[in-house]
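Late entry, protoporphyrin IX containing FE complex.
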Amino acid sequence: MLRTNNSNTLVEPSISLQELQKHNKVDDAWIVISGKVYDVSDYVTTHPGQEAILKNVGGDSTQGFTQQPAHRVVKNHISSLLEKFYVGDLSPTDVKHGGPT
Ligand code: HEM
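Prediction complete; structure with ligand written out below:
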């Protein structure tokens, strides 16, 4: 169900760990970066780092993503891509428990 926050902005429903883990294939690929879930299915073949993007597919890519120096160089480009890939937030309970490994 769609909800709104105090500023009346649409809030995406939160995504459970169980739901996230279903999207762990090349053609159905969700990853988490800093608690946000992104559908990168259409980007796998375009990604300059190729299939490395799938290392933690269906799970948490925060660490690998933030540690990759190439991503820092092109951070504006990446931000605009991530806006398009955004699916919703990982459920706060699952983030609290460390999220997927
Ligand atoms: C929304 C856009 C992008 C996402 C979500 C993304 C995500 C990722 C992830 C999850 C990894 C694996 C990190 C690890 O665990 O080691 C990775 C690796 C990498 N990415 Fe990206 N990436 C994006 C865009 C880009 C762009 C634009 C570039 C190039 C300018 C790039 C270059 C690389 C390189 C060089 C690697 C390492 C490849 C390897 O280890 O063989 N990525 N990326």
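The first helix runs from residue 17 to 22. Will revisit in the morning.
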